[in-house]
Specification:
The complex is a heterodimer of chains A (about 120) and B (about 280). In chain A, helix 1 runs parallel beside helix 2. Chain A has 3 helices and 5 strands; from the N terminus they run βββαβαβα. In chain A, strand 4, helix 2 and strand 5 form a beta-alpha-beta unit. The longest helix of chain A is centred in the middle third of the chain and has 11 residues. Chain B is of the alpha/beta class and about 280 residues long. Chain B folds into 2 domains: about 220 residues, 3-Layer(aba) Sandwich (Rossmann fold), CATH 3.40.50.300; about 45 residues, Alpha-Beta Plaits (2-Layer Sandwich). Classes of the chains: A alpha/beta (about 120), B alpha/beta (about 280). Chains A and B meet through helix 1 and helix 2 of A and strand 4 of B.
C-alpha cells in the first residue's frame, strides 16, 4: 500500500505542509517495501487547478491513502473518483503521521474546503 | 469614442462617474462590465430590457473512446481535467474553454458542450443604451460576458462609457483593451493612491492615454492620490468634492446630473475635457 503526504522540505523527516495543492513536495511511502520516495510538486505555482494537478500526480503515483490537514473540493472529487482514502493529519511530521495511520490513530477527512479559484 | 472608467479599489466612484458621463452625453452607450456586481442599471432603470445568455464551451469525454492516455490532462495548463480509474473528470469552473483538450486527444473522444455562465441585459434609459453583464453565482470567469458586452457596444456609433470591474485583474484588462481613453477614479487615501498606481500601470502597459478623476476631495486636506498624479504626470481631469448631497443622491440610485444642474455642469465639464484629450 502506498501512502502520500504533502510535505514542507525535501527530506524524509519533513513536517507536513498545510496545503495539498501548493505543497512543494510529497512523500510517497510504500508499506510493503518500507521505502520512501520524495516527489516534487511541479504544479505548486500553477495559477489555477493546483489541487486537481496534485490529485492527478497522486493517482499517477499509485497512492491509495492520502494524509493531509485539508483538501479542496476539486481535489477531493478527483481523489475520491480514483478510490483514494483521505485521512485527516492536522500537524507533525509525515513519518509520525504515517505511523499514526498504520496504528489506526487517524480518522477520515470529513470537511472539504472550497477551492481558491476565483477572479484573477 | 470609447472611454473606460477604472479604479484600483472598489467604492471610489467608478459607477457614479461612468453613469453620469453617459447621462450628460447627447446619446451614449453605458456598458457595465463589473459583472460580479453590476449596479449601473440601478441608476438608469432601463426599459424594454432584452436578456441573452452567455455560454462557454466545456469538454466532455466519451468513455467508449477515451483510453486514459492523459494527453488532455497534461495539456490543460489550468488543470481543469483529471483522470481517475476509468474516467475523465472535468472541473467546469476552472476550464477556460480553449478547446485544446479536444485538439490534442488522439482518439477524438472529447466533444464540446455549451454551458451558461451569465447574462447580458440590454435596455434603454432616455437616450442611453444600457448593457449590463451579470455573472451567475458561483462562476469564476467573467471574461466571456465582458467580451459579449463589448461586442454589442461596438455595434453602436454613439460614445461608449465602460464601467470596469475594480482592480487590475484580467477582467479589467478585457474591459479596457479597445478603449480610446482610460479614466482613473481615485479617493484621497493612501490605499486609494496605491491602487491608483496599479491601474495607472495597467493603462500604461496597454498604451492607453489616461486622466484622473479625484473623488471625495476635501479642500485643504492632503490627497495622496493627487500627489501620485502630479509625481507621475497624470493629468487631473476633475475634482469631485466630498459632498453629502452627492452621496445622498447616489445612495438613492439617482443620477446626480439629471437631478441637479450643478452636478450636470460638473460632469459636462469632465466630458468636455475627455473629448479634448481623446482629440
Amino acid at each position: 500500500m502506498k501512502i502520500v503526504v504533502p510535505i514542507e522540505n525535501e527530506t524524509e523527516d519533513s513536517n507536513i505542509n498545510p496545503s495539498l495543492g501548493r505543497a512543494p513536495y510529497y512523500l510517497l511511502y510504500d508499506t510493503e517495501t518500507e521505502a520512501a520516495e520524495i516527489i516534487a510538486n511541479t504544479s505548486k505555482d500553477s495559477p489555477s487547478g493546483a489541487g486537481v494537478a496534485a490529485a492527478q500526480l497522486m493517482i499517477d503515483a499509485g497512492a491509495e491513502v492520502l494524509l493531509t490537514p485539508r483538501c479542496g473540493d476539486r481535489a477531493y472529487a478527483a481523489l475520491k473518483g480514483a478510490g483514494i482514502k483521505i485521512m485527516l493529519l492536522p500537524s507533525g511530521t509525515a513519518k509520525s503521521g504515517i505511523a499514526a495511520y498504520l496504528e489506526g490513530g487517524l480518522s477520515e477527512l470529513d470537511t472539504v474546503v472550497k477551492g481558491h479559484h476565483g477572479a484573477h | 469614442m470609447r472611454v473606460a472608467v477604472l479604479s484600483g479599489k472598489g467604492g471610489t466612484g467608478k459607477t457614479m462617474v461612468s453613469v453620469n458621463l453617459a447621462a450628460v452625453s447627447r446619446s451614449a452607450v453605458y456598458v457595465d462590465c463589473d459583472v460580479e456586481e453590476p449596479n449601473g442599471h440601478l441608476y438608469f432603470k432601463p426599459d424594454g430590457v432584452v436578456r441573452e445568455t452567455v455560454t462557454v464551451l466545456v469538454p466532455r469525454a466519451d468513455p467508449e473512446r477515451c483510453d486514459g492516455c492523459l494527453e488532455c490532462v497534461r495539456f490543460c495548463r489550468f488543470h481543469a481535467l483529471s483522470y481517475s480509474l476509468d474516467r475523465l473528470m472535468v472541473f467546469d469552473d476552472v476550464c477556460h474553454s480553449c478547446g485544446g483538450c479536444s485538439v490534442v486527444c488522439p482518439r477524438e473522444a472529447i466533444s464540446e458542450h455549451e454551458r451558461g455562465i451569465g447574462t447580458v441585459d440590454t435596455g434603454r434609459s432616455g437616450d442611453v443604451v444600457v448593457h449590463t453583464g451579470t455573472m451567475d453565482i458561483g462562476e469564476a470567469i467573467g471574461l466571456p460576458i465582458i467580451g459579449r458586452l463589448l461586442e454589442k457596444a461596438s455595434a453602436e456609433d454613439d460614445d461608449v462609457f465602460i464601467d470596469c470591474p475594480p482592480g487590475s485583474s484580467c477582467m479589467a484588462m478585457e474591459s479596457i483593451k479597445d478603449a480610446d481613453f482610460c479614466i482613473l477614479v481615485s479617493e484621497p487615501t493612501v490605499f486609494g493612491a496605491h491602487n491608483l498606481g496599479m491601474v495607472a500601470e495597467l493603462a500604461r502597459v496597454f498604451g492607453k492615454p489616461v486622466g484622473a478623476v479625484l473623488n471625495k476631495v476635501i479642500e485643504g486636506e492632503e490627497d495622496p492620490s493627487e500627489r501620485f498624479c502630479i509625481e507621475n504626470g497624470i493629468p487631473i481631469l476633475a475634482r469631485i468634492p466630498f459632498d453629502l448631497e452627492l452621496g445622498r443622491l447616489c445612495s438613492e440610485a439617482t443620477i446626480a446630473s439629471w437631478a441637479d444642474t450643478g452636478y450636470e455642469r460638473m460632469f459636462r465639464d469632465l466630458l468636455e475635457r475627455i473629448t479634448e484629450a481623446v482629440g
